Amino acid sequence: MKRIKSVIMKRINLLTFLLMWLMMACGEENRWQYATDNIPPGQVSNVEVENVPGGSIITYTVPSDDDLLYVKAVYRMSDGTQVEQKSSATNPKIIVEGLGRSKKQTAQLICGDRSGNESEPYPVEIEPLDATIYEIKKSIEMFPDYGGILLTWSNPLKTNTVFTLYVRDEEDGTYEEVENIYTASEEGKYNLRGFPAEERTFAVCVRDRWRNRTDTVSGNIIPLFEEQMDRRKFVRWNPAGIPYLVLPNQGWEIENLWNGMGGDQNGWSSSQTHTIPQSITFDMGQLALLNRIKVFQRTTANQLFSGYNVKRFQLWASPHTNVNADFATWLFMGDFTSVKPSGLPDGQLTEEDNAYGAAGEDYMIQENRLTPVRYIRVYILSTHGGGMNVAQFCEIDFFGQIVTEEDE
Predict the structure, then answer these.
(1) Tens of pLDDT, residues 224-239
(2) What is the pLDDT of residues 174-210, one digit of tens each?
(3) Mean pLDDT score of the chain, rounded to an integer?
(4) Angle, CA 112 vertex, CA 107 and CA 113 arms, to 5°
C-alpha cells in the first residue's frame, strides 16, 4: 500500500510541475501565442531598394502594431516559381536572392502578426543585377595542358559556384559531362586530365546553388602529351651523405609513396629524432622528362592541411648517381607550397578543401624539365602543423615523358 501511495504522489508531483511549466510558458509571448484578434497589421512604409547581383536588398519602416511578428517578401524565381523570404519584426530589411538574369518584377511586402493576420500587400519594383555566375563566365579561359586542359576563372565575390565540364563525342556530336567543380575560390584554376594528345572540343558552364545556369564556353584544344612514370620501377635508394629517414617499426616506409593507395593510408614518415629541413631520396628506375608531380597528403586522423603533412618542399633530381648532400650536385626542379583552397585556419575545412586534398595536389615543374632525370630528392622545408620534426607524405606520382624503359 505504501508503495502504491508513493507512486501516486510522484505522478501528482509530476503533473503539478507540468501544469506550472505550461502556465509559465504561456506567459512568454515569443513562445506561445493564441489568436487574440482578427485585425491585420498595417503596411510597411519608407521602402527603399538596392539592386545587387542576383537579388535586391529591400529596407523599410515596419508598422507600429504591438503584435507584429514578421515581414515577408513574395516574388518569383527565374523559372517562374513563387517563393518568399521572411524577416523578423525587429529587422527592417529583407534580402531577395536567387535570381538569374536581370529582369524587372514586382515583389509584394506583407506584414504578419501573432494572431495569424496579414496586411494588404505592399508592391515594390525590383530589378536585380545579373547573378555573379554570368560575370564569372566572362572570365573563363581554357588552355592546353598536360593530359587535358587548364581552366581558369575569377570570382571576386567568392560566390559558391559549380563548374560543369563537358567533352564532345566526335562520333555523334553530343557532349558528355565529365566533371563538376564546387568552389568559392576568388581566383580559381582546375586541371582536367586523362586525355590523349588529340584535338577535341571541351566545354564548361557555370551554375549557382539556385540552379541558375549560364550558356557553355567551349574550345577546340589539343592536350599536351604526358604519361605517368611506372611505379613498379621505383625503389629505395640513398646517395652518400643523405641517410634514409623513417618512423621505425610502424609501417611508414618509403615504398608506400608509390603503392597507388592515395592519402587514406600509411605513407612515408620521418620521426621526432629527425629535424626539418630534411631530405628523402629514391630511384624512379627510368629516365624521364618530368612536367608535374601529384602529392597526396595524409587524410586520416584529421591531418588534411594540418599536422605532419608537408606544406613546403623543393624537388631536386639527377640523371646519374654521382650526387651527395651538396645541392650543387643536383638539378633544381622547383619550390612548391601546399595551399588550402579556402584559406581557413588550421582545423577548419570546407567541402572544397576535402575534395581538393583527396584528389591530390598538382605541382608543375618549370625548371630543368627538358633534362631527363631518374634519381629524386625531396627536400622538406615545413609542415602544415609547423614547429614539428615529423614530416609525412602518403603518395607522390610523377608525370612526363619516359625517355627510356631500360634501367641505367
Answers:
(1) 999 999 999 999 999 9
(2) 999 999 999 998 999 999 999 999 999 999 999 999 9
(3) 90
(4) 170
Domains and CATH numbers, the chain: 45-126 (2.60.40.10), 132-221 (2.60.40.10), 227-404 (2.60.120.260)
3-state secondary structure of 272: coil
- Are 200 and 220 contacting, i.e. CB atoms less than 8 angstroms apart? yes
Q: What is the DSSP letter of 250?
A: T
Question: With contact defined as beta carbons under 8 Å apart, do 398 and 288 qualify?
Answer: yes
Q: Is the peptide bond prior to 277 cis by the omega test (within 30 degrees of 0)?
A: yes
Determine the number of helices (DSSP H) and then strands (DSSP E) in the chain.
Answer: 3, 24
Measured distance CA(78)–CA(76) in Å, rounded: 7
Q: Residues, the chain, total?
A: 408
Q: What is the pLDDT of residues 323-367, one digit of tens each?
A: 999 999 999 999 999 999 989 999 899 999 999 999 999 999 999
Phi, psi of 108, deg, nearest 5: -110, 125
Q: What is the mean pLDDT of residues 386-402?
A: 93
54 is written with which cell numbers?
Answer: 542576383
Q: Distance from CA of residue 156 to its chain's centroid?
A: 16
> Three-state SS for 252?
coil
Question: Cα(first)–Cα(last) distance of the chain, in Å?
Answer: 97
Report d(CA 148, CA 323) in Å as an integer. 35
User: pTM of the full predicted structure?
Assistant: 0.76
Closest CA to 234 of 389, 374, 104: 374
pLDDT class for 37, splitting at 50, 70, 90? confident
Cell numbers given for 347: 582545423
- In the block, residue with C-alpha cell 611505379: 231
Strands lying side by side in the sheet with 68-76? 82-88, 68-76, 105-113, 122-126
CA-nearest of 64, 77, 60, 40 to 123 is 60
